[in-house]
Amino acid sequence: TMARSEGLLVLENFIAGKFVPCSSYLDSYNPSTGDVYCRVPDSGKEEVEAAVKAAKAAFPIWSSKSPLERSRILNKLADLIEHDLEAFAQAESKDQGKTITFARTVDIPRAVYNFRFFASSILHHTTECTEMASVGCVHYTSRAPVGVAGLISPWNLPLYLLTWKIAPAIACGNTVVAKPSEMTSVTAWMMCKLLEKAGVPHGVVNVVFGTGTKAGEALVCHPDVPLISFTGSTLTAQRITEKSAPHCKRLSLELGGKNPAIVFDDADLSQCIPTTLRSSFANQGEICLCTSRIFVQRGIYSEFLKRFVAEAKKWKVGNPSDPTVDVGALISKEHLEKVRSYVKKAQAEGARVLCGEGVDSLALPTGNQKGYFMLPTVIAEVKDESCCMQEEIFGPVTCVVAFDTEDEVIERANGVKYGLAATVWSSNVGRVHRVARRLQSGLVWTNCWLIRDLNLPFGGMKASGIGREGAKDSYEFFTEVKTITIKH
Ligand code: NAD
Fold first, then answer.
1. Given this model, what pLDDT does residue 7 score?
2. Among 13, 83, 194, 220, fewest CB within 10 Å belongs to which?
3. What is the pLDDT of residue 279?
4. What CATH number is given for 9-256+464-487 in this structure?
5. Whose CA is nearest to atom 11 of ligand 1?
6. Which residues are annotated as active site (predicted)?
7. Considering just the CA atoms, what is the radius of gyration of the chain in Å?
8. Which mutation among 181, 214, 291, 443 tests ligand 1's pocket best, with the greatest number of atoms within 8 A of CB?
C-alpha cells in the first residue's frame, strides 16, 4: 500500500560519487519483526557497467597518489564512521537481526579498525631485491595496484566484512565496485554518504546493490574487473570460479566452515565453557568461525555437557535492540527454517537435543512474534556421518560428542570437507602444538577464540577457501608484482 511504501527506507546505488536511483527494487526485511522496512536496488548489467566505467576512470589518479595520501583518506573515513558509530550499530542490528550489543562492540568498531589498520600497514611494505654479483645483475620486485576490484560480501557481518575488502583494495591504489548482500545493504549505503567528506575521490568506491545472480554475476563476468574478492558460501564460490574462468580472474575466496572445538580432559573448563558458548552462539551462530562440533574427552564429557547446557539455557533470546539480549534474530525466514530442519534431522537419526529448539519454549516480546528467532540448541550423540556433523548449519546449533585419544580426535576433526577454524582446549603446551599442526584448518585458536592480529593470514583450507587476507596477504592479492633485472 502507499502508506506502507511511504515509510520505507529506499537505498540508491553509489556510482561515480553520486547516488543514483535504480529502475527496480527488492524488499528487505527487518528479521526481528518480519516486516519489510527497506527497498534495495535490484541492479543488473547496466548498473554494474556504469560502476565499472566510473571505477576505471578514477583509477589513473587514485593509483598514482602516494601511499601516505591514501592513508590519510582512509584514516579520515575511519574517524567519520566512528563518529557515527551508534547510528551504524543501530542500522546493522535492525537490518541483520544481530544484537545491538554485538553491532556496537564487534561489527562497527571492527569496520573502523579495518580502515585504520590498512591506512597504517600500507606505509610499511617493502619489496624484494637480490644481487647476482657474478653476472653483474640486481633483481628487484615492484608492486602496482591491479585495477578495478570486484568485492562481494555476505550478510552475517555486513560492514565488517565489506570494509575488510574495501580498505586494503583502495589502500593499495585499486578502485572498487562493491556488491554487498541484498539482505544487508544499509550500512554500506550509509558509508557511501561519508566518502566525499573523507576525501575519497569520485569513482574510487562504487557500490551496486542487488542479488548475487544478477548484480553479483554481472560483476564477476565483467571483462574490465580483473580481480574478485568474495566472502560467502562454498556453493556460490564454485559458481564464481566457473563464471570468472574464461577471464582468468584473480580470486580470493573466504568460504564456509564446520569448525571443531577439541576439549581435552586437562582443559580449564572455567575458561573453556564460556568461550565455547560464545564460539557456538555469538551472532546467532552466524559467523563463519563459529564452533559447531565440540569433541570432549571421555573423562570430562558428562561434566562438560551438564555445565555447557546449563549455561546455554541462560542465553537470552529476544529483541535485538534490548542491550540485555544475547541472541537476536536469524537473517531470514528461509534461513531459520533451514537451521531448524537440521535439528529435526538430528532427532530423526536418534541424537538427543538437550536444550533449545523443540525442547524449551521461546517467549518473545509482542513486537517480535513474527521475527526469525531460535533458542541456542545443543545436540548430543550425533554420528560423525550425520549431516549435522558434516554440513555448515550457520545458526545457533552445536553438536557435542565424546572422544578418547588424540589421534582419534584429529582424524574426526579433519573428517569434513571444510577447514576454516578450530579451537583446542588443553593446558598441555606440547599437546596443543602437536594437535594444532595436524589440524586441517586455516586458523587454530588454543584456549581462546576469535582473537585476531590482522597482520597475520586469515582464510581457510579445503572447501573453506582459496587465498588468505591480512596485512601482507591482502597487499599481495590487491597488487600485481613484477620482477625487474638490471645489468650494469
Ligand atoms: P552467499 O554465498 O549466498 O552470498 C554471498 C554474496 O555473494 C552475496 O552478496 C550474494 O548476493 C552474492 N552472490 C550469490 N550468488 C552469486 C553469484 N552467482 N555470483 C556472484 N555473487 C553471488 O553467502 P551468504 O549466505 O550471504 O553468507 C553466508 C556464508 O558466508 C556462509 O557459508 C559463511 O560461512 C560464509 N562466510 C565466510 C567467511 C569467511 O571469512 N570465510 C566470513 C563470513 C561468512
1. 82
2. 83
3. 98
4. 3.40.605.10
5. 212
6. 254
7. 23
8. 181
Q: Which residues pair with 148 in a beta bridge?
A: 175
Q: Tell me how crowded residue 184 is: count the other CB atoms within 10 A of its CB.
A: 28
Q: From residue 323, how far is each of 32, 100, 104, 317, 473 by CA, in Å?
A: 14, 6, 10, 11, 37
Pocket test for ligand 1, best of 152, 153, 166, 287 (most atoms within 8 A of CB): 152
The alpha carbon of 124 is separated from its chain's Cα centroid by a whole number of angstroms, namely 26
Q: Which atom of ligand 1 is found nearest the CA of 459?
A: 41
- Say what the pLDDT of residue 302 is: 98
pLDDT of residue 1: 35
What is the per-residue DSSP string for 349-373? TT-EEEESTTTS-----GGGTTS--
Instruction: Please work out whether the CB of residue 213 comes within 6 Å of at least one atom of ligand 1.
Output: yes
Domain parsing of the chain, residue ranges: 9-256+464-487, 259-446
DSSP-assigned states of every residue in 209-262: -S-IIIIIHHHHT-TT--EEEEES-HHHHHHHHHHHGGGT-EEEEE----EEEE
> Is 385 a catalytic site residue?
no
Q: Taking a C-beta distance cutoff of 8 angstroms, is the pair 387, 397 a contact?
A: no
Nearest CA residue ID for atom 39, ligand 1: 254
8: its cell numbers = 520505507
Determine the pLDDT at residue 6. Answer: 64
CA distance 11 to 195: 16
The segments of the chain whose pLDDT lies below 70 read: 1-6
The grid coordinates listed for 205 are 568506491
| Residue 257 Cβ contacting ligand 1 at under 6 Å | yes
Residue 173 Cα to ligand 1 midpoint, Å, equals 25
Q: Is 469 in the pocket of ligand 1 (CB under 6 A)?
A: no
Sequence-ordered list of residues with C-beta below 8 angstroms from that of 414, at least 6 positions apart, any chain = 438, 439, 440
| Domain 259-446, CATH homologous superfamily name and number | Aldehyde Dehydrogenase; Chain A, domain 2 (3.40.309.10)
pLDDT at 344: 97
Ligand 1 contacts CB of residue 232 (under 6 A): yes
> Catalytic: which of 92, 254, 392, 469?
254
Q: What are phi and psi of 5, to 5 degrees?
A: -70, -25
Ligand 1 contacts CB of residue 233 (under 6 A): yes
Q: How far is the CA of 220 from the centre of ligand 1 (A)?
A: 13
| Ligand 1 atom with the shortest distance to the CA of 331 | 25
**DSSP class per residue in 95-121:** HH---HHHIIIIIHHHHHHHHHHHHHH
385: exposed, middle or buried (Cβ count in 10 Å: 0-12, 13-18, 19+): exposed
Ligand 1: distance of its center to the CA of 212 in Å?
Answer: 9
